[in-house]
Model the fold of this input.
Amino acid sequence: EAQVTQNPRYLITVTGKKLTVTCSQNMNHEYMSWYRQDPGLGLRQIYYSMNVEVTDKGDVPEGYKVSRKEKRNFPLILESPSPNQTSLYFCASSPPRDAYTDTQYFGPGTRLTVL
Amino acid sequence: KQEVTQIPAALSVPEGENLVLNCSFTDSAIYNLQWFRQDPGKGLTSLLLIQSSQREQTSGRLNASLDKSSGRSTLYIAASQPGDSATYLCAAGTNDYKLSFGAGTTVTVRA
Done:
């Protein structure tokens, strides 16, 4: 089944404790992206990657890091989490522009709480 | 910077009524316009995608229109059902895959 998976789905942590949220897709997509969703603000892009070893900042990259060593994986790293990073996080991937569809496929989300 | 607005933020209708959800965007230079559905605790599911050269897309009871010049898109859901209760998000897409999302409209269909 074509899908985007994220782990963990739920995480409660404390300020300053480094964490990684994993994202993996099995559709051989080149493009992957991370979003955060906060009440009343919609989804905002954190980082994106056009291909392996190619990453770039989105609209709200501060406090986050990413890496893209393999096409299927795109982990999100919070080196020193703070309470303002409490949010719902989504990973997404997209087929190339010449594919039959342009839509992005989203993972199920990771709800992060930083105390 | 693209700004996407969805009004109203919440909507409650009786079963069977048609739904009209509005989305506006500030920059008309979009590549596509997408509508997503989000259920509580779940990810986003793509409903309809309208390319910038198209005026509308239809899927079953859903119809989405796009007016680039006025910066508007509308999602119509015919004969609403309780299972249509969810949050609906619109997103304006650029040719480099970037999506700018609205905050969503939360729909409740009362049985």
Residues 10 and 111 of chain A are 5 Å apart (CA to CA).
